[in-house]
User: Which sequence fits this backbone?
């Protein structure tokens, strides 16, 4: 996991970098909030999933890190992958453009260390390696295709800080475009003090189903209750093995679910009836079991056009959100809990934490948070 991205900037990315320099405001950084300015280093984490291309650029702070730039674009790299086993030319073109924007941002922010990963779509596609080589050749970005275990561990690293410290067991899940990672995290006090949350993992699995693959099989536009239940049943079947291993988690004191994905953040935003998405109100939000049910039922009652017009969903997610809700529902039925905590953080944050920990940026007695 130490293979670092070579930040070389060919003409295409250099063009984006120049635009970013001209338009991006300088980061506002308080001197008292982190290392001395001369010691600051910008880190970048890029997560290329089946549906999204997302970048986070940050610098170390006493408790974790401070974000100084970010980028997210829905590229649907895995579109049609379930039926063809290949990444389509259109999807590749869209993704290459987005990756060039990301590299331009890295350049404009003076990133000194970065990590760029690709997940399920590139793992599964027969032309996944050819795509990675094209990205290196045309963009100058080195993508590492991570395995299922690494993806699950990064999700835990990125959002474990939101686990209730009084909970003796937590089930963390990350609903992606092409896969869903799920982890049973031990919450015992002795292990909870560890700076590395992966040491608390008791069991994990990566289900070969995500919002894109599920929506393509069942349809995401007009999702009736029977269609929704069909999706839930398929996910439940794939979840059986993990549920047998981790079933005791739900009976531990103060057990709760912790979800990170566009599905749960969208669900939380619709629950709060936000006029526009606001990460500050979503990340760390607790939802009661009844509230989650009401939010899912509310989305099931809407038409595609209504979901597309919702500012917290939008056209790009309108046909995917109910597939994500079906995955969430299967998890809820396997691990009943009165509480679900929402995390607007995940793989990118896990990558940043790992890089900064490896570089010893918190060695002065301050632990990452």
Assistant:
């Amino acid at each position: 996991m130490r293979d670092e991205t070579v930040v070389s900037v060919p003409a295409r990315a250099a063009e984006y970098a120049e635009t970013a320099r001209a338009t991006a405001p300088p980061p506002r950084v308080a001197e008292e909030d982190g290392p001395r300015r001369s010691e600051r280093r910008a880190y970048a984490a890029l997560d290329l999933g089946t549906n999204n291309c997302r970048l986070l650029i940050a610098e170390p702070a006493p408790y974790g890190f401070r974000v100084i730039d970010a980028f997210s674009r829905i590229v649907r790299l895995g579109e049609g992958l379930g039926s063809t086993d290949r990444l389509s030319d259109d999807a590749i073109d869209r993704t290459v453009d987005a990756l060039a924007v990301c590299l331009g941002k890295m350049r404009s922010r003076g990133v000194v260390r970065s990590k760029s990963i690709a997940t399920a779509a590139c793992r599964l596609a027969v032309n996944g390696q050819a795509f990675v080589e094209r990205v290196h050749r045309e963009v100058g970005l080195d993508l590492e295709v991570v395995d299922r275990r690494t993806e699950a561990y990064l999700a835990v690293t990125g959002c474990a800080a939101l686990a209730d410290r009084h909970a003796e067991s937590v089930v963390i899940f990350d609903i992606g475009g092409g896969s869903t990672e799920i982890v049973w995290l031990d919450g015992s006090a002795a292990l909870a003090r560890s700076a590395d949350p992966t040491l608390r993992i008791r069991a994990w699995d990566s289900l070969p189903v995500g919002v894109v693959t599920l929506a393509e099989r069942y349809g995401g536009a007009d999702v009736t209750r029977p269609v929704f239940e069909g999706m839930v049943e398929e996910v439940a079947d794939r979840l059986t093995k993990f549920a047998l291993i981790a079933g005791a988690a739900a009976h531990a004191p103060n057990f709760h679910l912790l979800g990170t994905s566009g599905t749960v953040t969208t669900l939380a935003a619709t629950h709060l009836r936000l006029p526009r998405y606001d990460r500050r109100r979503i990340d760390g939000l607790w939802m009661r079991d009844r509230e989650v049910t009401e939010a899912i039922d509310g989305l099931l009652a809407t038409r595609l056009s209504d979901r597309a017009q919702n500012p917290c969903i939008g056209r790009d997610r309108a046909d995917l959100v109910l597939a994500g809700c079906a995955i969430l529902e299967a998890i809820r039925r396997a691990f009943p809990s009165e509480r679900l905590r929402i995390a607007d953080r995940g793989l990118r944050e896990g990558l940043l934490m790992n890089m900064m920990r490896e570089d010893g940026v918190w060695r002065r007695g301050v632990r990452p948070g």
User: Anything to note?
Assistant: The first helix runs from residue 11 to 23. The radius of gyration is 20 Å.
